[in-house]
Amino acid sequence: MASQCTVQLVIDLLHSKVGVPLDIPNLETASWEELGVESLALTEVCTGLEHTLGTTIPHEEALTMKNVQELVAFANSLQA
Which CATH number, 3.90.1150.30, 3.30.450.40, 1.10.10.10, 1.10.1200.10, labels domain 7-78? Predict the structure, then answer.
């Protein structure tokens, strides 16, 4: 069974793979633009999620998510 996606997992990937600082207020609800995350960086995070969760995340759809919370909900909906 695949692991559950969590806000902390996505934040950790954003920090380690893309360099997003951990001290940004409302990190889980800030927009990708506010975090300085562009589509290539988000694709890299999605790839990290795929490896960690053992699931496939359609990157085209993931790019339509607006923030960390939406990405977590989307990733978890794929495992339902």
Answer: 1.10.1200.10
Residues in contact with 42: Cβ distance below 8 Å, sequence separation at least 6, in sequence order:
32, 62, 63
What gap in Å lies between CA 46 and CA 42, rounded to an integer? 6
Indicate the DSSP class of residue 43: H
The one-letter code for the residue type at 52 is T
pLDDT in tens, 13-71: 999 999 999 999 999 999 999 999 999 999 999 999 999 999 999 989 999 999 999 99
53: CB partners within 8 A, 6+ apart: 2, 3, 5, 75, 79
Is the whole model's pTM more than 0.90, yes or no? yes
